[in-house]
Amino acid sequence: MVAQSRRQHPVRFTIVRKDGQVSEIRTNSSQLNHFLDLLKLSRARNTWISYGHDLKQFFDGIRKAPALIDRRDCLTFMKQQQKAGMSEATINRRLAAVSALFNELALLDPEHFTQNPVHPHAGRAPHSSSLYRRQPKRLPDTVAPEDLRKFFQALPTWRDRTLMLLMWISCLRISEAVAIRFEDIECSRRSIRIAHAKGNHPRVVFMDRFTFAALNRYLDEERGQRFPQVPEVFVAFKGTARGQPLTVNAVQKLVRYYAEQCGLAHLHPHLFRHTGITQLVQHRMPEPAIRKLVGHGHPDSLLPYLHLGDDFVETEFEAAQARLNSAPPLGLLTPGGAE
């Protein structure tokens, strides 16, 4: 009876940080703790943290125990998120975290968790029963060359320039860039081993000569012999976080600050990765090689980048037609069909 009453208490989250990094996510619910432990063991670190934050958002808004959550609570949460100005993509991502939780609880305790409140009939009627909001297909944005030039001129340090080049030229996610350690770098190949990649699929990426030169200048002129006990390459040099590894949030703030300084308020870190992938696609790097470099597993993952930019499509169309035939087709350009 005591155990049953505990299950009905609203969920409270505790997120512990050590050296500026999330080290533990715990709750007062054994069911939530089981799910978070499972994620930490089986998924990438950033996935575990992301799910933790998204589930905290849900249970902070819906003050109930998991066993009491129903479909109406999910609708209430969606309204809360809409009112807070969250995008459809963000709402769907948070609903996906809740759905994943209830899928696992149904396996753990099928007697009490008989149905997923977000997606009750997964696999049978996904569109009619799911609460996920329909989203228009989005094409990834890119940063124009003149905006890239303006932004890089505003960056004051080699550390910041190196980070942006890694996200742009080497197509790293922001979380992958800040997690790089000295032991991950192979100078002879200008390569970096991405140990904590999305989906727990480590990979190797490469730096061009400009990125490698910027990295060396950062290490020689700014990092030097400071903070020898810190294995991460990129650290904070000021404030309360001095000597600690840079966080995703710190880089996001950095980009936002300098973007606003040069009148580029639309700029955000992931745009650098989108721009780099788009450039590789447009310069005809083989798609399997791009997918391996950027950490995409699905063969269709590059399709959005192939459809970027009407100017690019127009140029490619004109070039193809010039190669096909320079003569007017089928005599259609003269009266009566005569050539």
Mean pLDDT: 85
Report the CATH C-level class of the largest domain: Mainly Alpha
- What's the architecture of the largest domain in CATH terms? Orthogonal Bundle
The proportion of residues in beta strands is 5-15%
Describe it for me?
It is a single chain. With 339 residues, this protein is mainly α. It has two domains: 2-129, Orthogonal Bundle (DNA polymerase, domain 1); 145-315, Orthogonal Bundle (hpI Integrase, Chain A), CATH 1.10.443.10. It contains 15 helices and five strands. The protein has helices at residues 2-7, 30-42, 45-61, 71-83, 88-108, 126-129, 145-154, 158-168, 174-178, 209-223, 248-261, 270-282, 287-294, 303-306, 310-324; strands at residues 13-18, 21-27, 185-186, 191-194, 203-206. The strands form two sheets. Strands 3-4-5 form a three-stranded antiparallel sheet. Helix 8 (158-168) packs across helix 12 (270-282). The radius of gyration is 25 Å and the shape is globular.
What labels would you give this structure?
DNA polymerase, domain 1; 50% helix; 2 domains; two-stranded antiparallel sheet; disordered N terminus; three-stranded antiparallel β-sheet; 7% strand; mainly alpha; 15 helices; hpI Integrase, Chain A; 339 residues
Strand-helix topology:
Blueprint: H1 2-7, E1 13-18, E2 21-27, H2 30-42, H3 45-61, H4 71-83, H5 88-108, H6 126-129, H7 145-154, H8 158-168, H9 174-178, E3 185-186, E4 191-194, E5 203-206, H10 209-223, H11 248-261, H12 270-282, H13 287-294, H14 303-306, H15 310-324
Antiparallel strand pairs: 1-2, 3-4, 4-5
Helix pairs in contact: 3-5, 8-10, 8-12
